[in-house]
Design brief:
The structure holds two protein chains of two kinds.
Chain A lengths: L1 E5 H11 L4 E4 L6 H12 L6 E4 L3 H13 L4 E5 L1 H16 L5 E6 L13 H5 L6 E4 L3 H18 L3 E6 L7 E5 L3 H7 L26 H30 L7 E4 L6 E5 L3 H14 L4 E6 L1 E3 L3 H8 L4 E6 L9 H12 L6 E5 L9 H12 L12 E2 L5 E2 L2
Parallel strand pairs in A: 2-3, 2-4, 4-5, 5-7, 6-7, 10-11, 10-13, 13-14
Antiparallel strand pairs in A: 1-8, 6-12, 9-11, 15-16
Helix pairs in contact in A: 1-2, 1-6, 3-4, 6-8, 9-12
Chain B lengths: L11 E8 L4 H14 L3 E6 L9 E9 L14 E4 L19 E5 L12 E5 L1 H9 L5 H12 L4 H11 L5 H15 L22 H11 L1
Parallel strand pairs in B: 1-4, 4-5, 5-6
Antiparallel strand pairs in B: 1-3, 2-3
Helix pairs in contact in B: 1-4, 2-3, 2-5, 3-5, 4-5
């Protein structure tokens, strides 16, 4: 039965159903409600876990690193500056191939200080070696959380579930929560083969010289590549059991004979889908594609869905300052590699919570049709209160 | 992978204004919970800011008979609920309100609002709230009035939402809020003319409570 749940509460219930043994965190908006709810569950005896209030995000990440190395299933959550403070540990978790799962409640990065949602935080750690899955609704946050532990533990890769701060974490939406028995049937108990154990002493995180450091990175990269098939397979199994997909690697919307396609991530797909409907009503052949799995970057899935397009607009809520759109650059490289010559327009918007409405997205479609998106005009237009789109 | 196509023609958008501490965000959650209880899809979210006691707060609700996929903000509400009339002096509370839209105001109708094309529903919600709750909290009173004037949600569903959402605050708080809600619903200032618009058809029913609430709506 569906319930109307705040996103933070919904994802916390999903975490509880995954039976983590250690939860460590440091509060930061807009992530805090998730951890508060889990703390309540532990205090009420509804979750048999060690709850550790860390002294910082660096501490929280270090605690879950140690917990998973000791064989426990662990969880943490953060956002924005908190994620950046974790960065050094995030690389270590990935390098040690520890299947940590965390939520990043996507939020802008200072300066200037801003608590609202964009993707700059998780994009800043895109090279750390974590699987990154971007969810589009609270239901997907729940479903992806459950899938994340299975993906992490089978691939021995950490997984970051990226959910838009406020737009999901503070929004009440109908959500179907699976039963404990259903989740137990889908997600086996965690049995880590490389558990630190005094009975079988070994070194974790030792030094590596020039002759053997690189093979670790190669192995990580290979594991990430192989994770694509695992993510798809576990989502398919999830769909069989629960009747819902988490979104696979990518999720298309009205791609049938679409000549112009918008590629986006996260909740932005809602407004993009509405804009696509309005454009279709005007007889325009447009569609949309949501990139759910950003790491590993699913080149083949993207090409399969985009091969008939004549123009691709990548609309993203993050920027590599001095270079531009991140997803756009990666997509261009993938198309070039495949010898496909589809023009890719890069549009950056929604930074610091600036709202991307269907009207704004329609204006972007129009700009693309008029061939007005260029290096001078690669930021999304602003919206105004009366619904009229303001450019600039 | 595909996503279902839909229209949003039957969507009701509501914006709630108040001050930090008046339960504005809770009121939005209660309204969405009630709509969901009645068998609609619903969504509630606060204005994304750093709330503090006394500062202006906004929260939003969407009610629809089909899946709500929008996660962007809401600009053209069908109704506005104002928990503190003093905010009218400093905040653009009626911005984007659709022509003929409903304003549920805690206080007296401003003289300058005559003939502005909106429907004003004004009641002393803080006084009513204080009588029931011992504190001048207007939120459940105004929700009752909104429900009576629009029939977008049923009284039974609102009562259930209050019961479930406030249960952790104890039986007394729940009982007092339900009394406040009922008095708001039965407020004499509610226009006797037909509701603002027909309620959307529920997409799914959730058993007995949904059935009762449909009768409430037909009443």
């Amino acid at each position: 039965m569906k319930q109307l749940l705040e996103g933070s509460q919904a994802v916390a219930e999903a975490v509880r159903l995954c039976r983590p043994q250690v939860v460590a965190a440091y509060p930061i908006t807009p992530q805090t409600h998730i951890i508060e709810r889990l703390a309540q569950h532990v205090a009420n005896g509804e979750l048999d876990a060690e709850f550790i209030n860390a002294e910082s995000e660096f501490g929280a990440a270090s605690i879950v690193l140690g917990a998973v190395a000791a064989g426990a299933r662990a969880f943490t959550a953060t956002a924005s500056q908190g994620l950046l403070l974790m960065t050094e540990v995030l690389y270590n978790i990935a390098g040690l191939r520890l299947p940590v799962v965390m939520v990043c409640a996507n939020r802008a990065i200072g300066a200037p200080i801003n608590i609202f949602s964009d993707h700059q935080d998780s994009m800043a750690v895109r090279d750390a070696g974590w699987v990154q899955l971007y969810v589009g609704s609270n239901q997907e946050a729940v479903d992806t959380m459950i899938q994340a532990y299975r993906i992490a533990e089978v691939c021995e890769l950490p997984v970051m579930v990226c959910m838009d701060g406020f737009l999901l974490t503070h929004t009440f939406e109908p959500v179907e929560l699976p039963s404990q028995a259903e989740v137990d049937g889908y997600l086996p108990a965690f049995q880590f083969v490389r558990t630190l154990d005094p009975a079988r002493p070994m070194t974790l995180g030792g030094a590596s010289e020039a002759d053997n450091y690189q093979p670790y990175r190669v192995a990580q990269h290979d594991a990430m590549e192989n994770a694509q098939a695992v993510i798809e397979a576990f989502d398919a199994d999830f769909e069989t059991r629960f009747g819902r997909t988490g979104g696979g690697l990518v999720q298309g919307y009205r791609l049938d004979r679409a000549t112009t396609v918008v590629l986006c991530m996260g909740t932005l797909m809602g407004a993009v889908a509405e804009a696509v409907d309005r454009q279709r009503d005007q007889g325009k052949a447009v569609g949309a594609l949501r990139l759910r799995c950003f790491r590993p970057f699913p080149v083949q899935a993207l090409l399969d869905h985009l091969k008939v397009a004549q123009r691709i607009i990548v609309l993203e809520k993050a920027i590599s300052i001095g270079a531009g759109g991140i997803v756009a650059a990666e997509l261009r490289a993938a198309l070039q590699q495949a010898e496909m010559t589809i023009p890719v327009e890069s549009v950056i918007g929604g930074l610091g919570g600036r709202d991307l409405t269907p009207a704004v997205i329609e204006a972007i479609f129009q700009q693309a049709a008029d061939e007005k998106i260029d290096t001078q005009n690669r930021f999304a237009p602003d919206h105004s209160v009366n619904g009229e789109v303001q450019h600039g | 992978m595909t996503m279902e196509t839909k229209t949003e023609a039957d969507l009701h958008d509501i914006r709630l204004h108040g001050r930090g501490g008046q339960g504005t965000v809770s009121a939005a959650a209660l309204l969405a919970l009630a709509a969901f209880e009645d068998g609609f899809e619903s969504q509630a979210f606060p204005k994304f800011g750093s709330e503090r006691r006394g500062a202006p707060v906004e929260a939003y609700v969407r009610i629809s008979s089909s899946t709500i996929r929008a996660h962007n903000q809401l600009y053209t509400p069908d109704a506005v609920v104002i928990q503190d009339a003093g905010l009218l002096r400093s905040e653009p509370l009626l911005r984007g309100l659709k022509r003929g839209g409903l304003i549920v105001l805690n206080g007296e109708q401003p003289a300058a609002s005559e003939g502005d094309g909106f429907r004003w529903l004004c009641l002393p919600a803080s006084e009513i709230g204080e009588r029931h709750l011992g504190r001048p909290l207007p939120n459940t009173v105004l929700l009752g009035a909104l429900a009576a004037a629009t029939q977008w949600v049923s009284l039974a569903a609102l009562e259930k939402a209050v019961t479930n959402h406030l249960s952790r605050k104890g039986e007394e708080v729940v009982k007092a809020n339900i009394e406040a809600l009922r008095e708001g619903y039965e407020s004499p200032s509610i226009p006797t003319s037909p509701p603002i618009s027909a309620p959307p058809q529920p997409r799914f029913f959730k058993g007995a409570a949904g059935a009762v609430s449909k009768e409430e709506q037909a009443r």
